[in-house]
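Q: Structure tokens for this one, please.
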Amino acid sequence: MSHVKAGGSAKNVHNNAGRRLGVKRFGGQTVRTGEVLVRQTGSTKLAGPGTFISRDFTIHAAIDGVIGFSKVRKSRFTGKTTPRTQVHVV
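A: Here is the predicted structure, written as tokens:
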């Protein structure tokens, strides 16, 4: 016979706060230096001219200007190219 009761399943324990990821400034908007443009998990969007990428893959504006998005073809490690979105500030 068991000495302790069976520990049931806890169903209501996965209530973490959202991570607030996504595009924060959209195409055609004016941005200032240091503003957060895109918060992302991994490098889903590429940092183009006028932007820089921080340690947690957040893309920031490096200069004052107007934000834009463009499609580029990025070469992968295997040599295959895939379409990616590039963020740029001009």
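A few notes: Strands lie at 22-23, 30-31, 36-39, 45-47, 51-53, 59-61, 65-75, 81-89. The chain is about 0% helix and 40% strand.
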